[in-house]
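Example record

Each entry pairs one chain with its bound ligand, pyridoxal-5'-phosphate.
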Amino acid sequence: MFKMNENYLKLPGSYLFSTIGKKVNAFAQANPDKKIIRLGIGDVTQPLAPAVIEALHKAVDEMGKAETFHGYAPDLGYEFLRKAIVEHDYQARGCQISVDEVFISDGAKSDSGNIGDIFALENKIAVCDPVYPVYVDTNAMAGRTGEYNEELQKWSDVIYMPCTEETNFAPELPSKEPDLIYLCFPNNPTGSTITKKELQKWVDYALKVGAVIIYDAAYEAYITEEDVPHSIYECEGATACAIEIRSFSKNAGFTGTRLGFTVVPKELKCKGTTLHSLWARRQGTKFNGAPYIIQRAGEAVYSEEGQKQTKEQIGYYMKNAKVICEGLTLAGYTVSGGVNAPYIWLKTPDKMSSWEFFDYLLEQANVVGTPGSGFGPSGEGYFRLTAFGSYENTLEAVERIKKL
Ligand SMILES: *Cc1c(COP(=O)(O)O)cnc(C)c1O
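Structure tokens for the complex follow.
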């Protein structure tokens, strides 16, 4: 008789977005005359840049001719894309990353979920609280997180690093020693960032205790401030302790197109074996590459036109972020984020719970956001708004909130 992976049964229900969906649908049905503005989802809305579309068309045509047809992609991804990545994202910032340390993938969610495959089960993980749920849930599926305590909303074998108002929404070095540290800056959901000097402390700590940092930089293109690092490899010693995961989803609107990459430096070793060789083996066995067409589209993001156009898109979202931050601050809310990230993290007024504020905002302003408690216990009392809406809707949503 077969047995299933019972770790899946330990996972708490992922009620966040389904509960939001149900509540919004129920409200819309009961109030068909109300125009609901959705500032909840973490998905882009602007179309792909013209340079990307052009590259896609060209690559599609190539696939239609025997002379230019492409089958399976090389294991690490096409060199034209890995070269563009290394030049623009690393060498230009003084980071010593080589072309064969970059692994092209279909996105940062799969990579951040799959990376656990190359680590022993007994590794202890540390995560920020609130957190992007993928890091925790994928480790739970692997059996690395112990038992889930419903009341505390915490796993017994996970080290939680609270990111609260007191810590400026940044984690502090954990008191218990972790083996794997998940960091995401600029952060989803809080929109917070840390300076290069602060990130260096994490690198130094990881080197000292022999931990690996899994660094999710999916939002690096939203950074506007000078001293915020775009890559963890801007820190000294990071190539010996950090894996960096990146995505084209938020940088270039590829959420439905699918493209990302992971950097595993060859200097990162365990008992003389490189993690690079393990990840190469893992990907070579379980993954057959991102499509040629999409990798060409990714290459176009790095072209002069592509850079200009995607920067404009990000500028559009960041203008929304500014509208939200300024409007809510004027209305008396305590807000953070929105400066180096498309997320605005606000403190609920009058000690409302995250869900109470969700209902209040939906019913009184017909605006949908995301309850902070859905990202972890330290998110209780907070609320996330995203800058991914249209400018007009964002303006209107802020006006409605101001009038409450
Ligand atoms: C959106 C997002 C990603 C991107 O995932 P893709 O699979 O590349 O679309 C990764 N990490 C975080 C924290 C995100 O919010």
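The two ends are 59 Å apart (CA to CA).
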